[in-house]
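Exercise 7.
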Amino acid sequence: MYSCQQVLVGKNPELIAILTFLCEQSHKLTNMGIYYGRQLYFKSQKTLGKYDLEKVYKKNNHYKVLHSLFSTTNIENCS
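Solution. The predicted structure, written as tokens, is:
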């Protein structure tokens, strides 16, 4: 079972902008993964393995943003 913990963010507009951008990219990447998985299943009756999407989306911009050091560094600096 998954749970969620609420974290209150101060009124730092720079941090809020970065977090909003990262959340948007994460949402786009999730939608792309769902779409790819559905298309793969409908066309070839195959399902995705644990790391299949990582191989497919390695060069995708949404994927690169979430794993960049730039994002991590900026969030740490804004805190």
